[in-house]
Amino acid sequence: MIRLPGADGQLYTYVPGSAGAAAGGGEEPTREGVGAPLVSRTVFAAAHVVADPLADTSPDGPSAVDWDATLAFRRHLWAHGLGVAEAMDTAQRGMGLEWERAAELIRRSAAEARAVDGRIACGVGTDQLSVADGRSPAQLRDRIRAAYEEQLALAEETGAQAILMASRALAAAARGPEEYAEIYGALLRQAARPVILHWLGPMFDPALEGYWGSTDLDEATDTFLAIIAAQPEKVDGVKVSLLDADREVALRRRLPPGVRCYTGDDFHYPELVAGDEQGHSDALLGVFDPLAPVAARAVRQLDEGGARGRAAFRATLDPTVPLARHLFAPPTRYYKTGVVLLAWLAGHQDHFTMVGGLQSARSLPHLARAYELADGIGLFPDPERAAARMRQLLAVQGVVR
After folding, report:
1. For residues 289 and 266, what is the distance between their CA atoms, to the nearest angstrom?
2. For residues 351 and 201, what is the distance between their CA atoms, to the nearest angstrom?
3. How far apart are CA 337 and CA 69, in angstroms?
4. Which of 15, 121, 142, 209 has the highest local Cβ count within 10 Å?
């Protein structure tokens, strides 16, 4: 029994395991290395980084990463058959993890992927720049392109697939859609293998408001699709993170043949991945960091095919949606705090510390509700350990038993 703080500031009693293991996501695979491949969908989990809790640093200082624990978590994802989306916003790019450390993360994770034959795609951006770099808009655009090229070269040198992430600097510097087309067109032309284009909405990063040259999402979609249509052979797929299922479905139906839609919608992923008679989304999701065992099981059920496989997929994954919606509640960009909390409770790391001090970004009631929802779907391999750690967190915050 645990006394948890509610949103109203009052304590209530929660009995761990009382909701039952609806998703049954707790167990770990017994084999090492890479799990059997998922067949019907391509699935990436955007992975978090594990901070070094003993490092003497500050929230605005250089980040300190526990490399052993960080890479062990990637092996956990590969063991379930998922791909790893590395150095994305889930890894706190631009929110505590600076480019120098992200570059090291890409190198280390790509080497680990080669060692276990795991699938990996890495975020390529411009975060070595500040939005004020350059003496004129033209100079800044040149620097943005060069920054992208530097990161693209690094990702490709490691053998990883590149994910062209949205750029805060480009959002600040671009005067219209044509400048997005110019920069992305140049990057696609020089990419050695097909890339994933990432459209990250402002709910994840307010600095990306008006990306693709317009705050009108219909106009922005037209620009996005025109960039893809100009070089479809250079685009493996698009990751769409707008939390708008209808817009994603409409966009994926307009994609050129052979270009995937990787959903980044952490609210509607079961229906989008299940799809309909006109197609489906693959997945590249931050929420699959904590949900890896459940996500892998669900896709394997979908692999069985037919109405039965689809029904089993939804029956497994649908119960996880309340947890996902809670983790990604506004301000959505702080979802990483809940993701790391669940990693600690599940035993993937020994502490609840984040780079940039982001463990403080969510309230104690929010974290308590995340624990309750995760426990209710049987997400923790060791429920007793998760409950004990939750009690430790509560005690530190002054909640007495």
Report:
1. 11
2. 31
3. 17
4. 121
pLDDT at residue 28 greater than cutoff 60: no
| Residue 149 reports pLDDT greater than 50 | yes
SS3 state at 65: strand
CA distance 338 to 359: 8
Beta strands in 131-214 (DSSP E): 161-164, 195-200
Count how many residues are written for the chain.
401
Res. 30: pLDDT tops 70: no
pLDDT of residue 29: 57
Sign of CA dihedral 340, 344, 345, 346: positive
Alpha-carbon radius of gyration of the chain: 21
| Surface-to-core class of residue 251, CB atoms within 10 Å of its CB (0-12 exposed, 13-18 middle, 19+ buried) | buried
Element (H, E) at 365: helix 364-376
Q: In 3D, which of 28, 44, 113 has the Cα closest to residue 76?
A: 28
Contact 134, 143 (CB under 8 A): yes
Alpha carbon distance 255, 45 (integer Å): 23
Distance of alpha carbon 105 from the chain centroid:
15
The model's pTM is 0.95
The DSSP code for 8 is T
**297-311 tens-digit pLDDT:** 999 999 999 999 999
Which helix H or strand E contains 7, and what residues bound it?
Answer: none
Structure confidence at residue 137 as a pLDDT band (50, 70, 90): confident
SS3 295: helix
DSSP state of 298: H
* φ and ψ at residue 100, rounded to 5 degrees: -60, -45
